[in-house]
Amino acid sequence: MLQGRPQHARDLIRQPRSRRPAQLWLVILDHSASTRRHGALAQAKGLLADWFEQAYRQRVRVAVLQAAGTRPEWSFQGQRSGQALQAWLEQLGAGGGTPLLAGLAEVEMWLQSRRRRHPGEEAQLLLVTDGRLRDLEGLTIPACPTQVLDIELGPLRLGRATELARRLGAQYLHLEEVPEV
User: Fold this and answer.
1) Each residue's pLDDT tens digit, 25-55
2) Bridge-based pairing state of the strands 171-174 and 122-129
3) Measured between alpha carbons, how far is 146 from 56 in angstroms, rounded to an integer?
4) Domains of the chain, each with CATH number or no CATH
5) Among 45, 128, 155, 168, which has the highest number of CB atoms less than 10 A from its own CB?
6) What ranges make up the beta strands (E) of 8-99?
7) Bridge partners of 80?
């Protein structure tokens, strides 16, 4: 090669898209009533909108599990990111309790099933929460790389999301520390 330029066809490395492992970005979104405080959910939605746009550009599949109310509920299950996801995010509100532990268990079962259908797919999980849970007993640890995005804002912070991240063996990020995309 001459200054990084190939001279022969054998110098080129062809890597078709189909050969790259498929990517899946999983999101568990806690949008319980407590996430309304100090505009935490609104800021998190802005960050998620950017994240979903990145997923769209990178052709990554996205799955979203809502953790609010009495039980977790799937909104998207492995689709390509696009207009439907952005529209859903815009209309999303907050309310109810935090069935986060049930959500983690649901994600693990869903991942096991998905891996049987898509064995080469690489998954990563983003757990968006303010960490306001009563206890962490019975915590299910998903078998994929995990990040906990702490959206607890305001002057009085309980800091429970750091303990959640520690127990999950996850990377911890606070909403205020996330760099602008």
Assistant:
1) 999 999 988 888 888 899 999 999 999 999 9
2) unpaired
3) 20
4) 20-177 (3.40.50.410)
5) 128
6) 23-30, 61-67, 73-80
7) 61
